[in-house]
Fold this sequence. Notes:
Strand content of chain A: 25-35%
Helix content of chain B: 10-25%
Structural class of chain A: alpha+beta
Largest sheet of chain A: 6 strands, mixed
CATH class of the domain at 56-137 in chain A: Alpha Beta
Number of strands of chain A: 19
Radius of gyration of chain A: 20 Å
Shape of chain A: globular
Order of helices and strands of chain A: HEEHEEHEEEHEEHEEEHEHHEEEEEE
Oligomer: heterodimer
Order of helices and strands of chain B: EEEHEEEEEHHEH
Number of helices of chain A: 8
CATH class of chain B: Mainly Beta
Distance between the termini of chain B: 26 Å
Number of helices of chain B: 4
CATH architecture of the domain at 56-137 in chain A: 2-Layer Sandwich
Strand content of chain B: 25-35%
Shape of chain B: globular
Low-confidence stretches of chain B: none
CATH superfamily of the domain at 56-137 in chain A: Aminomethyltransferase beta-barrel domains
Radius of gyration of chain B: 13 Å
Mean pLDDT of chain B: 97
Mean pLDDT of chain A: 97
Low-confidence stretches of chain A: none
Number of domains of chain B: 1
Amino acid sequence: MAQTLLxxxxxxxxxxxxxxxxxxxxxxxxxxxxxxxxxxRAVRTDAGVFDVSHMGEIMVEGPQxxxxxxxxxxxDLDRIGPGEAxxxxxxxxxxxxxxxxxxxxxGEFRYLLVVNASNRDTDFRWxxxxxxxxxxxxxxxxxxxxxxxxxxxxxxRLGLPPAKAFTFAEAAVDGIxxxxxxxxxxxxxxxxxxxxxxDAVALFDAVLARGVVPCGLGARDTLRLEACYPLHGxxxxxxxxxxSAALGWTCALAKEFTGVEVIRRVKEEGPARRLVPFVxxxxxxxRHGMTIEGGGEVTSGTHSxxxxxxxxxxxxxxxxxxxxxxxxIDVRGKTRTARVVKRxxxxxxx
Amino acid sequence: MAAAETYPDDxxxxxxxxxxxxxxxxxxxxxxWFAADALGELVHFEPPETGATVAKDAAYGEVESVKAVSxxxxxxxxxxxxVNQKVVDAxxxxxxxxxxxxxxxxxxxxxxxxxxGLLDVLxxxxxxxxx
Lengths: 350, 131
């Protein structure tokens, strides 16, 4: 029996706009409206809006909230104060990545964690089981909707003041209250608007009325891959460690958190394989699961709408990880050449 | 711009959403508007080699959109005479003009009697209506 798919508060709007709806992480989500490439370009050149209300929001609060989270998350929360956010990892005892998430410090003793839709229940249970006296973990996902408004003109189109990346503030967009987070998953300027679920339709309509293009998960994936942001479940997961995944910068190895000793060891010894971005040298599109000659594997692949060529990320033996290294990828029986490049694969500044 | 939905009545169709424009012992092959729309904007065409043999109902190449890969199913058997280089260079041509500029390959038929087994436009529209 197929499980009933969950719907965001914007479901009917997506259908009215002609979106193609697909199942994603248990949700019925728009993969595209007019077309992935068009939507991708809108975000790179102007502004696009994504319904990411399927993502989870977990509140952690109480006098011991920081102590709890410092022991569970890889990054150092002492580096941010109220009004600031941080990209971080929830790790397991093996040093693997349970999830990657953004922690918003709402107050001295209060955090909002925005987590991947597919890991919402796992993350919540993981943290709830480890709760300590003076800390409380609550899944508040259903109360909220989340709209990512991304692109060089996103902030201007919303009429918001400029602000630094990884900060947030309360603001109103056309009279609708939202938490405006200067974060995103596209490699562009912009924000993520967290609002109450019942305000979602009004906020979405207001954003569209300001000339922002509705974009689906298809463009979200091509954008994040051009920017080299990993996708949990594809590029990183409970069996991959942060060092191999080039996420060492999110790990405060001087503090104690779950699995830190394993991560320290990988860092010290050097990882056996590394997650690298690559660009195809010939016409071919790499896809998740394809093998890379020499013991590697593609974990994400697509066609880059900006570069008009196949791009991807994959794990390769450390010896093949240097930028400039030629890779041979098995594309359904044909060997195609790719080259390891530096992060990001694409940025507007070049 | 993607083309509007059409199915020309001078073409022969295969239920896997491929079309053939037969001219004597040659045919030009392509994919239908339905197939192009279902895939989304095409970004890659993996053609067969000129001179290669294609067999009715078997895959002769691939097309890809950002999200998906699809085999190209030959509606007829024959030898590849020409590959549409314009589609190799600009695969989105298929979405813009699936029955004209967006043709894929031209073949010499090895068994012209196979044409009788293909669908006419009404029969193909019935296939679409049932799917």
